[in-house]
């Protein structure tokens, strides 16, 4: 294929996979909100892997209660981008999801062995050389546009606190996200509910994340909407959900004009909204059974 044709094909296939999985996270009547999710547009426009990693994360959450081995296998496939699975092992450990953990370990190991068999040991030996590109990017000054394209607290804090202060601030937030992810199981045993806090915490707790990685946020956004529809909306939840639904694209669009990417604030708000809903989590909207 030509480059433009390959771009379009990759984006269309990835979007199809992501939507086929993510529509099951939506309560009745909100599938169109998944279809139009702004975070999906970013993944398509960058021709990045956000659709694939998003489908793996959302699919793993949806399947955990019914098919833990398969859910773990999906999580294990995130060995291609392990920083997106930062909270997954902690979430599974805290929930005592041993079969999912085993499935994830097996999946990751098999993928690594498959790559070794297909491409040989030379690719593994050469892999550390790719770190040089990341080092060069990370060495740029805090005013560089690269940091505005990242949507992490670390990138935002570099503007004010420098590399050391930003690293310390991110470490505190990452630890807090890890604690909330693990404590969620004490508030409810609903895998989709605790999965929502895990995915929301991933957006805040991962130090290396770009806006095109965020299609997985459709699950916590839809989970909050589903809980509200099953019970009642708080006075401020509807506008908050609209803002959070728009936030992946809106914060990316405003980053250059404002000189800062505000996605960490949206991620923190999403974590807070999910956390407040956890004690009364209803399993009525769990759609994982539809994937059987």
Please give a structural write-up.
70% of the residues lie in helices and 0% in strands. Helix 4 runs antiparallel to helix 12 and helix 5 packs across helix 7. The C terminus is likely disordered. The chain has one domain. With 292 residues, it is an all-alpha fold.
Structural descriptors:
292 residues; 15 helices; mainly alpha
Question: Could you outline the blueprint of secondary structure elements for this entry?
Answer:
Layout lengths: L2 H20 L8 H5 L2 H9 L3 H14 L4 H9 L11 H7 L3 H22 L1 H6 L4 H8 L6 H5 L3 H35 L3 H15 L12 H13 L6 H22 L4 H15 L15
Helix pairs in contact: 1-3, 1-4, 3-14, 4-5, 4-12, 5-7, 6-11, 11-12, 11-15, 12-13, 12-15, 13-14, 13-15, 14-15
């Amino acid at each position: 294929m030509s480059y433009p044709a390959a771009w379009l094909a990759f984006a269309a296939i990835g979007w199809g996979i992501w939507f086929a999985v993510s529509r099951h996270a939506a309560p009745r009547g909100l599938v169109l909100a998944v279809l139009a999710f702004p975070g999906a547009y970013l993944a398509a426009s960058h021709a990045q892997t956000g659709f694939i990693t998003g489908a793996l994360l959302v699919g793993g959450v949806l399947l955990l209660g019914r098919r833990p081995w398969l859910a773990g296998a999906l999580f294990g496939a995130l060995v291609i981008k392990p920083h997106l699975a930062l909270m997954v092992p902690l979430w599974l450990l805290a929930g005592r999801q041993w079969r999912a953990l085993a499935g994830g370990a097996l999946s990751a190991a098999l993928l690594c062995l498959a790559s070794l068999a297909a491409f040989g040991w030379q690719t593994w030996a050469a892999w550390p050389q790719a770190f040089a590109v990341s080092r060069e990017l990370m060495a740029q000054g805090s005013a560089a546009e690269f940091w505005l394209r990242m949507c992490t607290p670390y990138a935002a804090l570099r503007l004010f606190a420098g590399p050391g202060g930003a690293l310390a601030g991110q470490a505190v937030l990452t630890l807090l996200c890890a604690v909330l992810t693990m404590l969620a199981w004490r508030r409810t045993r609903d895998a989709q509910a605790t999965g929502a806090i895990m995915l929301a915490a991933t957006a805040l707790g991962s130090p290396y994340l770009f806006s095109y990685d965020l299609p997985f946020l459709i699950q916590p956004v839809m989970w909050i909407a589903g809980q509200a529809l099953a019970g009642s909306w708080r006075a401020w939840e509807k506008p908050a959900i609209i803002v959070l639904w728009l936030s992946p694209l809106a914060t990316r669009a405003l980053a250059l004009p404002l000189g800062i990417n505000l996605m960490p604030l949206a991620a923190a708000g999403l974590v807070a909204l999910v956390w407040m809903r956890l004690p009364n989590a209803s399993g009525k909207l769990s759609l994982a059974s539809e994937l059987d």
